[in-house]
User: What shape does this take?
Amino acid sequence: MSNDYPKETWAFAGYASPDSALESWAWAFSQGERKVMLQCLVPEAQTILERELAGKSDGAIKAPAAQIAAKDKGYTIQSREIISGDDVILHISEYGSDRLTRIELKKIGSDWKLTGPGQDDSPPNPR
Assistant: This one.
């Protein structure tokens, strides 16, 4: 199992594992693929994203996604935290950043889905 996911290799990878579901999300988001972005999420998160995207054309979704994706270089899965057989947390960092992001995924049927946007998981900065 690879931990490195350079942007050039992102593709729709399905939902068979937490890693593949996250890669599918990263690819879909970078492409502004509304349908796949929604399919990557648990139902509650789908509802929230549907509200955010309501009334937006595909072009209005793809243009900002392309701007954000232009800055992305890829990500590394730093660790995998198994909460249960149906709940996993991936701790990732974007290439070129030391910030950690916490991504929770839940298994629904045989598919893994993201519970929502990632949360900052970096340790507090001591002062």
